[in-house]
């Protein structure tokens, strides 16, 4: 479990400006082990800041972040970072290394032999459904979708317990994005990884999240719920707006009950998820 306890982050303001920038203010939430939690919200609301605090690329100004109860401030930052996978928007591959070398980076840093790292590369290419001969290519020779697959393969190569993804599919076209999302949904339960996924795209959040944390300014949590619950019972107009439900007839949100489970369908006919049993 990852827990954020009253976490605040302020950055120094722009040069010579008097005011600090409050990126995140007093935010608390928990992420269950082995689930997909999506941090959703508009640009600038603090998503990246929250994500990068988990692997200590950003240090909170105040508050505590724990992984399985341990305060991460007391863990070795290098070890911590290597035990957590990270995928960013533009895959962030090293341009002068081949695909295979890129995927092998973290296992090698963690002390894997060349042979062990080579095995990991093979397994990872298979996992993300890239042909094994792609290992010899350079990042510039890949399509956007292929590069993101390599980014995911690299992040997972040393079998991290936690995977952080920051708008990883934002720059690829919708069809490729849907394929990448589906692949992630296939891989995550197989590996049991705790996935914290950032997006400003509500459709993506609804599709991927077991749990969605919808954020407003300064990382303020507006609602944390399952996708079904969020669509069925948006906490307020902000949530409705974000879901694109605003102004729509409430009845357009259809509920279909089957085998005692209730599926919620949003106003555009997209299944948003199951309602929690109460
Ligand atoms: N390194 C930084 N220095 C100064 N301000 C920053 C820095 N990183 C982020 N910010 C500011 O903090 C706020 C939150 O940013 P960010 O976490 O990147 O949001 P998001 O990922 O949701 O777009 C924004 O106002 C942004 O301009
Ligand atoms: Mg961001």
UniProtKB/TrEMBL annotation:
Record SMART domains: AAA (SM00382)
**InterPro entries cross-referenced by the UniProt entry:** AAA+_ATPase, ABC_transporter-like_ATP-bd, ABC_transporter-like_CS, P-loop_NTPase
Record-level Gene Ontology MF annotations: ATP binding
Assigned keywords, A-Z: ATP-binding, Nucleotide-binding, Transport
Q: Domain of life of the organism in this record?
A: Bacteria
* Entry-linked Gene3D superfamilies: P-loop containing nucleotide triphosphate hydrolases
Query: ABC transporter domain location, by residue?
Result: 2-243
- Keyword hit for Nucleotide-binding: yes
The record's family statement is: Belongs to the ABC transporter superfamily.
Name the UniProt record assigns to this protein: ATP-binding cassette domain-containing protein
* Species annotation: Yaniella flava
